Amino acid sequence: MFDSLTERLGGVFENLKRRGALSESDVDAALREVRVALLEADVALPVVKSFIDGVRDRAVGAEVLRSVSPAQMVVKIVHDHLIEVLGPETADVEFHAAAPAAVLIVGLQGSGKTTTAAKIGSWLTGRRKKKVLMASLDTRRPAAQEQLRVLGEQAGVATLPIVPGQMPEDIARRAMSAGRLRGCDVVLLDTAGRLHVDEALMAEIAAIRHATDPAEVLLVADSLTGQDAVGVAERFKERVGMTGIVLTRADGDARGGAALSMRAATGCPIKLLGTGESIDALEVFHPDRIASRILGMGDVVGLVERATETVEREEAARLEEKVRKGAFDLDDLAGQLRQIRRMGGMDGIMGMLPGVGKVKRQLADARVDEGLLRRQEAIIQSMTPRERRNARLLNASRKRRVAKGSGTTVQDVNRLLKQFKQMSSMMKKVNKMGNRGLMRHGLPGLPMR
Asked: What domains sit in the chain, N to C, each tagged with a CATH number?
C-alpha cells in the first residue's frame, strides 16, 4: 500500500536535498510535484487541495527557509501533515457498552465484509481476549450465512445458528439475545452488501442499528475503490452513523488514495487494515507509522511487533543454538522461509524498514516474491530427511529427483543449494566474530531468482 506514492515523494525530497538552501520557488515546485503524486495515488481533489495549502503555509515560512537543513524540515512538515490527515492518533475498536457490545459491519457489495468479520472475530478472540459471537444478517446473497459459519470454524469463533426465513432485523435481535445468554463480550453483526445509492437497503441497515444500538459501526471499504471512496464513506456516515473504517486489500493497492480520502472527508478514523487473505491478516491502523512508511522512513516498531507475534521463542532459541554449533541445515532454512512468509514476505518486511526504496526495487527486479519462497520451500520438502540434514549427499541424480518432485528445475535446486552454502559460511564467520560480525557482513543469502 502507498508504494507508488512513496516512490514519487521519495524522488521529490531527494531533489530538494541536493539543493541545500531553498528558495520559496523551490518549495512551490516541490509542492506541485507532491500534488501530482497525491492525485496519481487516487486521493480526492478536495483533500489534495487542503493538504497542499496546509503544508505550504508552514513550508514557505522563515522556519524552513532559514533552517540548517531546509529539505529535512519540509519532509517533517509533510510528515506531520500526513498524520493529521490520516488521524492524529491510533483509534481503537471501542466497547463502551454493556456486554455484549454489538459491532455492526457494513459496506458495499464485494468489499470483503464477511471475510473481514471473521478476521475481526479472530483478532478480538486472540489478541483482545474477548468472547465473541458472529452472526450473518445477509439473507440476500446465496450461502452468505454458511460462508460466515465456515469462516467461524476456521477462526475458532462461535457463530449464530442459521434459521432459514428470518429477516435481518430479527436475526440481529436473536444474536444479541444469544450473546447475553452465552456471556459474550462482543456480537459481530455481518450485514448484506448494499449500494450506497440503494435507499431501501440503507433504510434496512438503519433499522438494524436502531434495534441493536451498536458500540461500533465499521465501514468495510476496498482500498481499490479509488475516487469513489469519498462518496461511499460520506453516504454511509450520513445514513448509518459509522464510527470507523476498515480498509481491505491494503496489500494489493499500491496507491492508497482511499485511506487518505475517506479519513479526511468523513472525520471517521481508519481503525483496521486487511493485509492479506489469511484469517490473521489484520492490523491496527497507526497513522504515525503509516505516514512514516509513505515517506520511506519505515515502521520498525510495527516490524518488531509483527515478529513478536509470529516468531516462536523456543524455535528461535533452538535455531540460535544450532547456528552457534555450526549445525544449520536445510530444515532450518525451510523454517526461515516460512517465517518470512508469515511476516508478510520480503516485500512486507522491506516496506517496514527505513530507507530501503532502492533495495526494494532491486528485489522486485530479481523477482523475489512469495511464489519464489514457496518454490524454495517445496524444493527442500522434496528432499529426504537425510538430505536435508546433510546437503553434501545431493549428487546429480538426487538433484534431478528433487527437481521433479518439487516441480522445479535442476538449476533452481542448484541455486538454492548455493544460497544455503553462502548462508552457512556467513553464519560461521558471524559466530566467530560475535555480534559485531553480523553488522560487518550484513544479512547473507537473500533468495534471488
From this structure: 3-86 (1.20.120.140), 101-297 (3.40.50.300), 303-441 (1.10.260.30)
